[in-house]
Each structure stands twice: as structure tokens, then as C-alpha cells.
Amino acid sequence: MEKTKVIVGLGSCGIAAGANKTYNKIKQLQEAENLDFELKKTSCIGMCFREPLVEIIDETGSYIYGNVDEDTAVDVLEKHVINHEPIKELVVKTDLFDTPDNSFFKDQVKITLRHCGYIDPESIEDYEASNGYEAIKKIADEEISQPDVIDMILRSGLRGRGGGGFPTGMKWKFALNSQSTEKYIICNADEGDPGAFMDRSLLEGDPHAILEGMIIGAYAIGATDGVIYCRAEYPLAIKRLNIAIEQARDRGYLGEHIMGIEGFSFDIYVKEGAGAFVCGEETALIASIEGERGMPRKRPPYPAVSGLWKQPTNINNVETLANIPWIITNGPEAYSKYGTEKSKGTKVFALAGKINNSGLVEVPMGMSIRDIIFKLGGGIPEGKKFKAVQLGGPSGGCIPEYLADTIVDYDSVNATGAIMGSGGMVVMDESTCMVDVAKFFLNFTKEESCGKCTFCRIGTKRMLEILERITEGKGEEGDIGKLEELAYQIKDNSLCGLGQTAPNPVLTTLKYFRDEYTAHIIEKKCPAKVCKALLHYEIIADKCTGCTVCAIKCPVKCISGERKQAHVIDQELCIHCGDCYSRCKFDAITIS
Amino acid sequence: MTQSLNILLNGKIVSGKPGETILALAERNDVHIPTLCNDPRLDPYSSCYVCVVEVQGYRGLQPACSTKIMEGMKIDTDTPRVRKARKTALDLMVSNHYADCVAPCKETCPAGVDVQGYISLIEKGLYSEAIGLIKEVNPLPAICGRVCVRPCEAACRRNLLGEGNPVGIDYLKRFAADKDIEAAENHYKPEVAPSTGKKVAIIGAGPGGLSSAYFLQQKGHQCDIYEASPQSGGWLRYGIPEYRLPNDIIDKEVEAVTELGTRIFYNKKFGDDVGYAELQERYDSVILSIGSQRGTLIGCEGDDAENVFSGIDFLRNMEMTGQRYDFSKKTVAVVGGGNTAMDCCRTSVRCGAEKVYVIYRRTEKEMPANPIEIHESKLEGVEYLFLTNPTKVNKDENGAVKSITCLKMELGAPDKSGRRRPIPIEGSEFDLEVNYILAAIGQKTTINFLENVNQFSQNGELKANRWGDIDANPATLQTGIPSMFAAGDGVSGPATIIEAIAQAKAASRSCHQFLTNQPIEAEKKEFISRKDNFAKQDPKNYVGRYQEQLRHEMPTLSPDDRANFNEVELGYEDEEITLEETHRCLECGCSAYHTCDLKEYSTQYDAVQGKFEGDFKEYDVDYSHPYIEIDNNKCILCSRCVRICKDVVGANALGLVDRGFETHVAPSMGNSLTETNCESCGMCISACPTGAISENVNFKPGPVKFDTIETIDNIGPEGFEMNLHHKAGYFMQATGRKGDVNKDGNISRQAKFGYNYLNDPSRITKPLLKRNGNFEEITFDQAYNIIAEKIKGVEADENAFFAGARLTNEELYMVQKLARAGAKTNNVNAFHYMGRGIGYGQNAMANVPFDQLQNASKIVIIGSSLNMDHPLVNHMIFNARNRFKVQVELVTTDEECGLDHKVDRIHRIGSYYYFAKAVNYYLLSSGLQNQMFINDRSLEYETYKSNLLAEDFDDLFEKSGVCCIDELAEFAKSFNNEMNGVLVFSEKEVSSNVCLELFNTAIITGKLGKTAQGIVALKEKNNSQGIIDMGACHKVAPGFQPYDDPKVIQKLKMKWGIDDIPTNINSPYKLLKENKLKNIFIFGEDPVACAINKPEVEGWFEKLDFMMVQDYFLTETAQKADLILPASLPFEIGGSFTNTQKYLQKFDAGMESAIEENSPQQLINLMEKLGVNGFANMEEALWEVFTLLPPPADPETRKYQLHSTGRDNYNRQFNHGCDIVNKRFDDEFEAAFEREE
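ok -> C-alpha cells follow
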């Protein structure tokens, strides 16, 4: 009989929720009580909203417990591990009985995330035990040629998951056809979209899959060196990658004559990112690796022809690479059976914002946005109305509720004006101001502009200034026209994707929520009651008890009144901070 | 591969080269695409996005600078979409361009007089040029310098400093104008175009009419002015009293108009004395500049009383009649607060009035009159009744004025003019007893010729507008009659002189368009960036930032001496005071005004600074580097400076800091460029498309439109083409010019920043003879006689001649001929090379042409200061490294040097000489030599080999100081195996024997005479090579031929037509040391100042009987001379230099010589004095050299000689190439950085 396993999820999300304490508590108990179970670590399974997660596998099956703090851990150990009585109400996922959270997993198809949350990412044995490095072995054993590997990827229909959606096989083909003795493969792990954490989860949860994907890619295009350009803000990912690289070298998956393939030598190192969003753009990324300021340059030449150190270079995103070993092992057809006509396979999304189940989900291409948000994501908290979803990060756009039946594939999403992007899905409810959202994303791109080209450097700043004016109640007639004019000019005349897509959040919100802009500009009102400068606070005399709390706390002392008498706000002085509103215990303050 | 691509460019099929960018293709096909970030010297960058074009099938617009053409591409460079994008790019750029193109003074001037420009010229004493600049838009500077209302001074930013007064702009203008008038015959005269045959009648000889005539006459149109009065000037003469504007000043400025050909007919009133029918028949066009002639009375009850006049009638009558009013014992009231009121009250004082009141309804603060006028009038005793308004004139029994009833006022809310409105105070009436009332409250235009004109007009109608002024298009000033234009008060209503001049400029421009059948359009508004568009200028940003300096006030007549009409203001006392006042100018306008690309394109594409209003960046200007000024406010982040510094210079001293909107250029890793690897080469300046990086000059840079001299660098040996920019001989800038040697148009540090000596007023221009220890001017002929006598007075070989490396080939040749043929001595040499061996001679014959450096596979620099001594070669090498990936290695004896951070590998050694020898030994002893090359192309190989191998290798190795044998071996082998290896070294750093051994290395490794391999040997001075080639050396004859060769001597005898040619070969160095010389003649060298062992050199000269020096300045050597000849600058005489690669380059004289008999002429005359047939010109001298040259060797078969050397001979005697020009720059450079520290 196999030993019972206790597995603690130690991804960044878990650790943030206190998983280390939980792990230590379990370990401490195990040692103190001399308990006979195997304590293991794994990474995030995607249920970030239930972290810390602890999985217990005994002879009856797997039980994942959610929100396991130190006390709960003691309970679970005692009842489940020692007494074999699972605490059903704390289980969030199991195949043995239904749990309220089972719907989160029901419609997911885990290819990319196949190992995340299941194996110990710091253990190459775990990876190997789950068919790891089988794909490269298969290539070596069956002597699959470079063009044949590329052909498999082409047939799988895999498209770049970094956002561009360019067919991966085509990219490899270009790189293979570029003649040079030196070639590079780069893994772009500079995930920077606000609200996106797919890559981090993968890097933390399944680093060997990325390495294997790169090794296969290197073989296919004839690369000699690989670089993982990982954002420095992911220390755990970097640590695990370096451990994995060491292990892979030890086992001969990296180095000279890999798997005995004649002339195939390849190694990988991790380069920590420079902390700039634009370094996710491939030419800026290359400049950054070369030690230059991370600024894009005009393409062509594309990196496939002249990339790192002016040599042919192939750049793939983390998620793309994670799919590669699976495709080789299971065959391209197994992959392409998922998805739509032009978008094959599965896609990982990071659910964030106003959603109950924020976390990572992997679904087949073709699922509707509504299903993802409501079936997997559990809908909107506090029963509020679903308003829109921002897809594709700052380069993407807002899709309104009435288009929520749009299915996720590259072309359908593009048709709405948003983009698939890397898979960030930020959900907004009725209390979200769309002008404010546009301002948020534009502020992000403005801050992250590298400053090189005129339109992006100054244009985004000017657009932001107009949005700021609008949300401050200083909008003027004609501002929408100015915004649109600038937006199209910036899209048309920017050097890289950052600038070319920066206006998208503004353009899509203008497209779907124009009336909100008009309300701000003409009526000087923020319908979602978010833009402070446009809010009008008033005390309802009937409800005011004269408790004086608001008057005491008001930072500009603009509320006056006798104790136990109705108070009044001096509208001239009010700075619309909302402090009184949130402090009033008698709902005596209205906002309009 | 396809040899050419078919491209559809703007609908035309053109052929493109593979790899070419759209920008380059367009340029070749004369399609101009604007760009700010592209620099042909650098890789494309694409940041400005001004060069965008439409390419069919591409998403978005494409930057032409970095988009490569492809077969069948369809490109449109000028569509509405493209224009819109370019305009938006420029709109965005200028929305964050917190800078002034022009200073507020010029901006405010109605005529747009370039105040900052003329102050810059006045600073340099260029008064006529200053007047020329003013007269481009204002023909009356002496008049305006006295009586202009000076909106410029009100706008002057000096006011923000709180010193009380703006720059004395008008005082400076007056000073320059008076100087120009004093220059009499030499006063400034504009060019007048050949006659067009067109004639223009101008009505009125006031400022508008005179100005119109001045501008139109220059265009070649005959102008006739019809003036109703008996004299010229209009209100200038008849309205402004003489104590402010003397009539002779008016006469002078009118003369400056009439001398261009304009005629003035007096006493001809339009409509009365001369009718339109006549004008229409005789003239092609008419300009009406009739002025506002009618004064307004007070407009209250009783103003018809006797002795109540309009102020202007009062003033005019006196001027017309020449009779002054007698106001003695009378009381005069002047009503009004403008300048006419001032003229009336001050004139009344001068007419003897006992009491003069000025009655004004507001307070002094609101008075429109010039404050100085108010001040002066008070000094003269005028009494002011402010907040007072006349309501009634009371008559005596004879109907004459007896008193005036006034009402007190108080100030209410501001009115439309911004001034507070006066409101009467009820019941405050009072009476003032007066004898005369002068109303100075306004003028009206009288048009009584409308009927006459319209009666005869064949086309159109002349109208009056609702104010009673002439109706004309406000922009073009064309009236309802197409051939008739109007300017001045007559069209604008009463205004200022400068406004009338501005209108005359516009009207005459339109008139010229009319006369030349062009469409009549007002001048296109150029784009002007203004700080005021962003923020009101705040005194706090000025106070403390600029040095305080109080204004030099205008000296005036003492108030006691003013009972007359003598001019009260006396003008600045002298040039010193004037110069000091120019220093108060804050130079608000941009010195790149005439060259800024951003401004040019912004004008072209109608960019608007306020289109995208918002946040802007404000930076302090960085003056911390003595030669380079960084003004980030003007930066558009094209990064050309950053990139050129990195990719071409290799210094990487500038970088981009911060991100997004905050991005700016800053010194890398330091607060100041002086703390970085900056080499002060100035390449960043050459790359800047705006005025963001500019030269930090010690004079006011203008902006000034330069005159340009195309010449060749006269400091360094590369022989690069360059331009010197000056205004009337004051040099203000040096720039590179693309040429044969200088393919990129770069310029060296020395040339870029070293032109100051050209402005040195101590330049010698006359021969000077020392008498009793003082130099006295003598004539050239006296000088030649003295020299000839001295030469003849001693044994031939007691004379010696020295010719410097700065001289032209022609001069060098003449000096040696003067010595050998004239003085019959072979004692000719250059201190430059004295005592340094013969090894420098042959290097030049096998140099790698500079433009092949980028094709090298490895470049080895031997030395440590190439970047400072030879910046251009440095740039070429590091451009090759950074852009073409050429390996660069450094071999240096220094522990650390300025090249360390730029190269791929460093070999630190102890001795260049032993290192080279050890390498050669190693190669030969290991049998690694390129034997095939040696057999075919070398001479004396065996001798060299046996000599070298006889030496002790261990000893050579040890003395070389190289760390280990492996490094030496690796260096030798890898250089030997290099496909295209180049050795680069300079004579400044290595001895002549090192040169020989490195030459040997190149032979042994078989690299000479081949493409992109061999040596680059750099000489020190612009014409060091010329010294050798022209035979200015006791060992060589012209053509670098051995002087001991009888065949050569024979050739010289034949050519020179003489028999007694000297054949002694004495070393002048030895002769000097042994004091065997009696006379020496030095041309263009300064051995005393440049000596390494100064006492020794001074010792040589002290023993002499006679010493002659030819130089620009009183150098230390010249001070020791008995006779000094003035020297010409190269660009004053033209000629030729031979560069360090033996490339002979001719250049023309670019400006007149400052010296009556120029340097070559002096040599020609001296030769004649000694009985040698001189030359007619320099050309002949060079021609004679050519006839003496040996037949040229075939570069394919030329043999290279190996030289055995015995020891290192680093025996340098002089620094700075022995030239005061180089020394001066080196000293200035060092001092500039010492000051910084």
C-alpha cells in the first residue's frame, strides 16, 4: 500500500496566503508525532482564491483542502491522515464527491498546466515520473528530423501564446531556414500585463516543461544557446528555473550531444529582466539581454533573421513552450482536436478583478467568455451586475457584457477590438467606471513607454492628460474627438506593439461605453460613482443624528453642525474624498 | 541576387539598390523626406516618426529611415495621411519643447528686428554688420535708436531680474547706427538688384514711405516719393522736436534711402499737386503712406478759443515756419499722456514758458508716454496734474483762453485696454489759469483724394474704412485697387514709427509680388516655439541665475543746459560701455535659429505648439562642460548625440535616463560630461538637429547668419575638409564638410573648438623691426632689404632657414629654394622634425586609406592618446568596431589610458621599440614571415634579418616589457594570420625608429600595399608630410629625393638655372648646438614656446647675430627676433597641404588677406632680392615641384625597404608640432578643464 501523501501548494499565491506556515506546521506535527506520511511540495493548481491548498492522497483518492491555515492543518491531519475521516466540508476538489468548487475544474482541460499543482517543481524525478522529458527522448529514439518536429508543431495548430498568436511552427521554420553557425532560442518570461500571472504559475509549477520545450525548439531550429528572460519580480520562478537547469544538466538534458543526438549541444541560462514592461517586446528584450537600454527597434529584420547578437533567434512565450512536449508526446492531432478552426488547443486565463473565483483556468479554445466568468469564475461577488471584461492587458480592450458570448479564439476576440493577449481577464462590475479603467491602463502604458518614439512617449501622455481632465470634471466638448484622433495616430505611428496597442483600452471603452465619457464631459457626472471630483456628497438631514464623526474626521473640515443636530457639508470646500460617506453609520450621506 | 529593385515611388518607377532604405532611395531620387532622428553616419533608429511614408499593404505608416525597400514596393511620401502624421509628430514634439526660438525682444518688435542678433554683432564691434541686420527690416535705425517706443525693452527678460531696467536695446542700436553714420563712405549699403524697369510712386516721405522705397528699390524697382511738405521725414521731422531727434539724423537716414536710387519730389500733395491719373500713367504701382495728419482738439466747451491748438499743429508749425513760439511769462497746459504730450510740454519749456502743466486723467502708471520722457520733463520743470480732466475752456473778452476748468477723477475698474477707467468725482471742479492749451489727445487721418483716385481708377476702388483710414487687406496691405498698397498711420490709424516700418515692409513685399506677377500673399508665418506658450516667465527662475549688472544709462545734457533745442540724449560714451551693455543680454533666443530642423519642419507642416497642451519638462541648462552646452529643454530625444558618442566615438559618455515622458539625455553615470569618458570631440554637437547640444562659446553666438570659408584643417594631419563660419572676419563656428578624406564630414576637437585664435586682435599685420628693444613698424621693402643684407653679410652656411609644418607646400618649397638657390646654403630644416631621425619619412607611402578601416578584420592601436591627438582617426576606428564589428586591440605603455574602455584587448608593455623588435624577431626566428611577399616586394630583407637575429631575443623581450612570452607570441602570430590587420600609430607618441620597426613588421607579415591592411602612420601637423615632400630638410631634395644624389642635384641645377648649388650637408641641429650659425630665418614655428628644453633653445637664439620670424602673433620666438614678418592664414592665401597619407589637397583662399603682402608674396620678393627668379603665384611654385618629382612607383610592384635600427631614438625636441596654433589650443583645452575642477 502506498504511503499517504500530503502535498502543500507553495506557489507565490500560496505563500502569500500563508502556505509556508501551513507547511511548517504540518512538518512540525509530522516530526513531533512521528506521523507516517510523505510530505511534499507542489505549486499552484489555479485556485488562488482558496489558498493555502493542501492535497491529501490516500488509498481512497485525492482530496484538496482549501484555506488551510495552521489550525485547519492540525484538524485535517488529525481527522483525515490519522483517523482517515476526510473533513468533507473543507474539501474544495475531489473526484469522490461533489464540492461547491468542483465547477471551477469541471470544464477545464489541462494541457499546459498539466503538472501545476501536482508535481514538486523542484524535483526532476517528479517531472520524469509524469512523462517528463519523454518528448525529447521520443525525438532521439525515433530520430525525428528537424523539419518533422516543426511539421508536428505546425500540424498541432499551436499559435504563440504571448499575445501575437503567430503560428509557432512557422516561427521555427523561419529560424531553421536562417543560415548561421550560431542561433539562439529565447523564452520570453517577462510577463508584465497587470492582472496576468499565467507564466509565473507555469515557471513556478513546472519549470522542466519550459526547459523541455526550449530543448525541443533548440533542436528544431538548430540553436546552440538558450536564454530565459524572466522578470526579476519573480524570484521564486527564477530560483526554480535555476534548480531545474542544474538538474537538467546533471541528467544530460542540457549540454553536449543531448540524448545522444549527433551534433546537438545546447545550454540555457536565466537572464533577469530589467524591470520594464517593454522588455517583453522581442527587440527590446534582445537589447536588454545584450546589456543595452531596453528599447525596441524597427522590424524587419525580424529576430528570426537577426536577433540576439545579430544571430538568428527564436523567441517563444512560456506558455507556448510548455505545450511543446505534450504535443510531441501525444501527437499534434491530440492537441488540435481542441479548439476552433483557427485557434487550436487550450488557453490559460488569469481571472482577476470583480470575480468570485480569481485564479488560473485552462480551457479549450472556443469557450465563451460568459462561461469562463460565470461557470468557472463563479460570477460576480456581492451579486453585482457584470459590466465588462478587459482582455489582453493594457494592449487589449474592454468587452462589454452584451458581447460576453464571444468565444475565446484569436479572431473572435480581435473582432471585438480587444485582443487575446497573454490571457489576463480582468472582470468589471457595475461599480467600475470605464473612463477610469481606460485611464488606469493608459497610465500603465504611459509609465511603461520606453520613451523612444514620439507618438508613444508624448502621445500616450497627452491622451492620459485628457482622460485625467475628464475624470476631474474638466472635460471639454471635443475631448472625445481629440482622444480618438490621437489614438489612431499613435496606433499608426508607433515603433513597437506597446505604442501600437496602447490606445486600445481607450478606443474599446469609447466604442462600447461612449455614454459614460459623455456623462463625464457634458453632465460632469460619473455614472459609476468612481471619479471623486465629480461626486457630490450631501447629508440627509432626516437621517443625520449629529454624531459629529464625519465633521471630526473630515480632512478639510468642511462639515459643520451642532452636536445632535443635522450637519451640513460646505460644497465649496469639499474635496470629494468620501471619508464622511464611508464613516457614517446612519447612511445619512448620499452621493450623486 | 537581384542587382536592382523596381519600386513605385510616388507613382514613378525608380530603381532601388538591395538593402537600401526608403529614405535613401527617396533622397537619390530627389524626393525629400523630413527626418530628425536619422543621421547618415549612424544606423537607422526611428524615434522621431517624422519620416513616415505610406507603403501599400503595410499596416500603419512606416518610418522611411529604417524600412528597407523590397521588390515591387509601392511608396507614397506625401499623401494627406502622411502629412497629418508628420504634423502630429511635430505637434507632439513641440508640445514638450519648453524653449524660445526667438527672444521676446524680437518677438515683440512690430518689424521683427533681430535684437539678439545685432547685440551679438555689436558685442564683436561689427557695427556696420549690426546695422545691416537691422536694415533687413528697419531702414531707420538711427532714428528708431532715438525715438522708438521700444516694445522690445518692455518685453526684455532682464526686467525679471528686478534690476529696474531692461537691456539698453535702443541705446545700443543708436550707438551702432551713429557709428555707421560716422563711417561716412563706408557705411552699410544693401545690395540693389538690377533694374526691373518697374516704377512705384510712393505718397509721403514719412517712415512708411521711406521704408517702402528702401525695400522696393533694393528689388530693382524705381521708387519716386511724392511729399506734400517741403522736407522729408513726415512726423519724424514735423512732429518730433529736434532736442529728441536732430534733423541731420533724419537727413542721413533719408540719404541712405535716396542713395539707392529713390527720388523724392517735395511740395507735391497727392490729389492737389499730383493726381492719380498722372501716377497711373507713369507708374506701375502706388503705395500710400500718407500718415494721420489731423490733430484732435479737447472736445469740450470753449475749445475753439484762441491759443488752443492741437499739439501736433503746434509742433508742425514751428518746424514749417522755423519760428518758435514765444511762451515767456506764459502758462501752458498740455492735455494728454502720450509721447506727443511729452513733446509739447518739453517744447513749451524750451519756448520759455514760465509754467507748464500736463493734465492727464489717469495716473502716471497708466501714461502711455515713454517713462524716460516723463522723467526728463520733470527734470525740466514740468508739473503734472494727474487724475484731472478738462471740462471747459474759459475765454477772456477777446476770445482767447483765460483758464481751463478741470474735474478731479478717481480710477475705477479696468477697461478693454486693461487700464483702470477714470471716473469723475462729483463737485471737484477747479479752474486753472492758463495762456495756452495744447491738446495732445489723438490724430485723425485725412483722405481727400478718394474721388480723384476713383474717378481715374481703371480697376477697382479705393475706400476709407469706418474709422476714416484707408481700407486695405490687413495682411497684404493691398487696397481695393490691385496696384495700390497702403502703409503706416494712414491705414492703421495713429500708431508708432516701428509699426509704420513694419507695414511698409509688408506692403512693399506685396507690391513686389504684384510687380513680378506673383500671387499676392502675406509672408508665411514661421513656426516659433515660445516659453510663454507654456508658462508665464517667473522672476524666481531668473533672479540669482544670472549675474546682476545695472544698465548703463544714457548720458544726457544737464537740465541747466536745455534752454535750447540741442539733443538731450548724448549717446553711449564709448565702445567699452557699449560692450558692457551688450553683456546684459540674456540671449533668450536660440542660437540654432537658422539651422534648427525641428523649426524648419514645424513651419513646413504647420505644427502648432498649443495643439496638445499639457505637462512639459523643464530642465536647467548644463554649462558644466567648457565646450559643450546641453539644453534638454530643446531635446527631441532623437538620440543622435547618444548614438554618435557610442557608435562612432566609442566614448559612451551620454545616455538616456528615465522612461516614457520623463526620458532625457544625460551624461552617463555622472552629473556632468566632465565626469564621464567624454573626449570633448564635439561630435554630439554635429549630430543635434535642434539647439539642444551646442557649443559652449565665450561670446554671444547670435543667432547670426554666417559667411562660410571652405578650407582644410590646418591643425591636424588628416587633411579633412572643413568650413569656418564667420561674420565680417569674426569667427564663430567650425564644422566638418564631407569630402574626399572626410567622407562622413566629421571634424576634430582641435578644429571644432580651436578657432578662437582667429579672433585674436593681436594678430601681426605689418613687418616689425626691433629697435632699442621695441618693435616698430617698417615697410615690407625695408624688411626685405634688411633680410637680404643680413644673408649676404655672412658666410652662406652661417645662415639657416626653418619652415614649419603649418605652411602650405608652396611656401615650404619656396623657403627651401630661398635657402638653396638664394642664400646658397643647404641649411634648411624644420624644428618640427629636428633631431628625430629619418624614420618618419617613408611611412606615408604605404598607408591604409582611412575609408578602408571599416573593412579591416583587426586594428591594433599602438599608443595611448589616439582619441585626443587624432579624434577623426579614432572615430573611424571605433565606428568600424561598433558598427562593423572590427576587432580593436591596444598596445600601450601606459598603466591606464583613455582608450582602455573602448577596445577588445589591451597589451600593456614597457617599450614600443623593443616590443616591435621582439615581435619581428619572433616572427623571423620562428619562420613565420610571409616569404612570398618578402621575395616579391621587399628590399634588404637578408641584411635586416641577419642584423636582427644577431641580437639577444631574451634582452629584447625583457626590454619590451610584455608580460610573458605567450602573449608576445600570440600577438605576433595572430597579427600575422589576420586577413586584414592594420597597425595604427602616431608620430607624436612613437620614435622614428619605432616607425621603422613597425613598417618592418608590416613587411614581414606581408601586409603592405594591400586593401584594408598594413599601417596607418599619423603625423603631427597639417603639413608635416609637406616638409619632407617639399625638401625643407637638409637631407632631402623636393620629392623626398636624397640630397646627396648627384642626379638630383643636377636636376635642381637645371630647373633653377644655377650652377653654384650648395652641396654641404650639415645638420642645422648640430650647427645650432655648436653655435655655428649667425642668422636664422624661421617661417611659421615657435620653437621657444614649444621647446621641451626651453633654456637650451633660448640659448641657441641668444648667440645669434640676427633672427627673423614670420608668424601670426608675437610668439615667444618672435619676441626674440630682430625682425618679424606677418604671416598669412592658410585660408587667406590658398594652396595645398599633403596629408598624413600623402594625399595632396588643394584649397582656395576664402577671404581677403589681412596683410598687405601675403606670406608667399613675401617669399617671392625675398627670392628676387637674392637674385632668384621668383614665381608669379603659388600655382607656379607647385608646378615647379611637380616637374622635379621622380617618376611615380607602381603601387602593384613597389618595393618596400626593411631598415635595421640600432636603438630607440625618442628624441623629441618640441611639443605641439612646434606651432603656436596647436600650442594655444592645447593650453586652452587644459586650462578649460582645470577651471572646471
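The mean pLDDT of chain B is 94.
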